[in-house]
Amino acid sequence: MSFASLYPRLTATRRIQDMCGTWDFQFDPESIGERDGWTKGLPVPTDMPVPASFADVFTDKYSREYTGDFWYFTKLFVPGEWNDGNLDIRFDSATHHATVFVNGFKVAEHSGGFLPFTANINDVVKPNAWNDVAVKVNNELSWQTLPVGEVHTLPDGTKMSAPYFDFYNYSGLQRKVRLVYTPFERIEDLSVVSHVDPSAKDAVVDYAVATSGSHDVEVVVTDESGAEVARATGKSGSITIPDVRLWQLRDAYLYTFTVRILGEDGVIDEYYDTVGVRTVEVKDNRILVNGRPVYLKGFGRHEDSNIHGRGFDPVVNKRDFENMKWMGANSFRTSHYPYAEEQLYEADREGFFVIDEVAAVGMMKSLMNFMDAATGTGKQKTYFEEESVQTETLEVHKRTLRELVDRDKRHASVCAWSLLNEPDTTVPEAVPYFKAIFDLVREIDPQARPRTYASVMMSPAGVDKTMDFADFIMLNRYQGWYINGGYPIVKGKPMMKAELEKWHELQPGKPIMFSEYGADTMAGVHKLPSVMWSEEYQVEVLKMWGEIFDSYDWIVGEQPWNLNDFQTTEGIMRVDGNKKGLFTRDRQPKMAAHWLRERWIAMPDYK
Ligand code: GCB
């Protein structure tokens, strides 16, 4: 539990000052910035928008591919009347490692590029004056970073990123930065757990509040019209919501929980968040929301767009939701890292089932390192056998999972956790590692949501050693593309069905869903008869998968790869990025989107 996990809110007692905009920016390839006083200002800065990834705003290769330390700098005016409380700078993320300095003093350090952290500046701030804010960021990948990768050095000494994953290593201050003022005695955490009895009119929500002081709290629940429906006092307890309206798939309803610390002279601190009342569980080959079996239709996605890179863009985000709704989708996976909180709030409001994935991607032999594969250097490396993975990486993974659950645990849309994407689960060394992270998530998630991981094709049923830990099975499979692509596609269906039946036999009672399948498709390429990369072929591949899914009633969802085309590291397998999108990178539908839309519109959200 940390204060950073509370999304910044303006309330009767809290203030927010937006720090987004144009910052100074400079690369620091020799890592001399700290020694040379860059914390007080950058020697030769260029302008850089925040939030944004830095890569695609530049026109030269060196800058786009830059790997190493780089600095952001801005001046922050801090209102003097805020000196009677806490002042924290809240970074919604900094990718991948950040050290924050205010007026030359180091105030925070954080690793992990997709989760928030705060820097308390009380001891160093100059009130009613301009303050120096410098952030040293580093985007190097290693076996101890999530996501996993390496740094290669070119003959001239320039570093480059070698990701073990198939998306561009965008980095920088890619989400919002804000100054947050809160009272000294403040609300630091809120968790909620719903209990739904489908035959009852009321629902009970257990809550727990953490504060930094000893005063008591009250919790007031209001409905969407703003009318009070329930209240309670005490830092933990149960609230009964009469005539409850549940949060349902694609039919969301959100209550607001307002928490107040009550002092002798009135309210000391106030915070609110939206809460959807719903349960989620796995039972008898089904995923149940409020006791009803769901069928997941949706996508693997990326936070990725032209020029912005992975910089949060509310306009692109809105369009993605509109496209998903147009498709008849009801779900998505945050492949392959935690998404901006704004996305989860939108999913809460729209009633989307989110599988929330941590950035544990690339835990795999480098045969699947797309960079190495593309350049033909495929070195055979293992992962879980390494001692440093079992110690250091495991600790990083656990800390990141704690931060993820802390941040996302209240969201009704967050219905399941994905703890890894495509790890090598063929080796016995994966087993203790999996046990440690799966046990941890069960222990720290108050809602005990189902846990899973995205299984890779090289770890099929019978070879995989870790599926016992997953509450439901999630498969990434590429029959019709990486296997049996083109004319031999006819072999794909029987092979996949044989594997599926084996999973069903080995893991009876566990629902199975597909979190990836698809085909690279160049928008505008049409071929009769179809060939790989044509729009016709993408339809053919999706049709084959539809027939597979419709053969078994224990298949509970389909999420093709990917909602949109997206940027990757350059290489012989990628034409300016991955083209498996149902939509182009500028968010227009390919032919297959129309076909899939017809299929999905006809399928109900609940089975
Ligand atoms: C996968 C990965 C995903 C890739 C995809 C592909 O299995 O999980 O990150 O982009 O395959 O298109 O190769």
Structure explained in plain terms:
This protein has about 600 residues and is of the alpha/beta class. The chain folds into 2 domains: about 20-175, Jelly Rolls; about 290-600, Glycosidases (TIM Barrel, Alpha-Beta Barrel). It has helices at about 60-65, 315-325, 340-350, 370-375, 385-410, 430-445, 490-505, 535-550, 590-600; strands at about 15-20, 20-30, 45-50, 70-80, 85-90, 95-100, 105-110, 115-120, 130-140, 150-155, 160-165, 175-185, 185-195, 205-210, 215-220, 230-235, 235-240, 255-265, 265-275, 280-285, 285-290, 290-295, 295-300, 330-335, 355, 415-420, 450-455, 475, 510-515, 555-560. It has an 8-stranded parallel beta barrel with strand order 23-24-25-26-27-28-29-30. A 6-stranded antiparallel sheet has the order 3-2-4-9-6-7, with no helix packed on it. A hairpin with a 5-residue loop joins strand 15 and strand 16 (about 230-235). The longest helix is centred in the middle third of the chain and has 22 residues, at about 385-410. The chain is globular. The model has no long low-confidence stretch (mean pLDDT about 95). (2S,3S,4S,5R)-3,4,5-trihydroxy-6-oxo-oxane-2-carboxylic acid (GCB) binds near residues 166 and 422.
